[in-house]
């Protein structure tokens, strides 16, 4: 439970050691927001703008809870970060709403599959899937996001591409509260070499993807956004290329890169564990 302890302890950031910035994950103990604000320097989501987005309230055996995001990838599977399921025993899932406390549909799952190589210290292989207790029925308000193709896995690094991320996370470094309102922000994908200069090669693996803000570097995800999807627009169809994983210990709005799981690195893993066929 070491990841959760960071946030129980008033989100205290650890000191830098081998590299300038030590990443911290984005999960956060559930707390009642006092205001409705925005993902750090982003925008409020419109109704059903992200019909695949799933809110996740993870519950541990000792009663501790945390908030994460996820994405619906089929009628029975949700994709999220491994640190959102690690050492938790149940997951309350909310679908079809841009308000954290008023999901259109909700259900509770007790079945998650975490990558066997997940390392909570380095956040390598920070990927997990949650199986729904029943199939969900697609509608205009709730349906699955597209996964990348095998061709994108072979060729795409997505450098300089505009991507979009959404979540209910903190809206700034000065607040401990989550947002009850779903928010989003556009990001610019950077090279792993650039990201390694901030976090070092132990953290930034080939399966890591990093971004900076599209308009300015202070646009970012924050605590509570973990597990949510990083998306690219392909002719009006949205494809998930990343999973929110970590941010700099210098703060969400510090201007340092944000880190994600590179979805294209795990297409075979997703397919094997969920039975979802990956597009060629």
Automatic annotation (TrEMBL):
One annotated GO molecular function: serine-type endopeptidase activity
BP terms from Gene Ontology: digestion; proteolysis
InterPro entries for the chain: Peptidase_S1 (IPR050430), Peptidase_S1_PA (IPR009003), Peptidase_S1_PA_chymotrypsin (IPR043504), Peptidase_S1A (IPR001314), Trypsin_dom (IPR001254), TRYPSIN_HIS (IPR018114), TRYPSIN_SER (IPR033116)
Key word DNA repair present: no
Gene3D superfamilies recorded: Trypsin-like serine proteases
Entry keyword set: Digestion, Disulfide bond, Hydrolase, Protease, Serine protease, Signal
Name this polypeptide is given: Collagenase
Organism: Pseudolycoriella hygida
Lineage: Eukaryota, Metazoa, Ecdysozoa, Arthropoda, Hexapoda
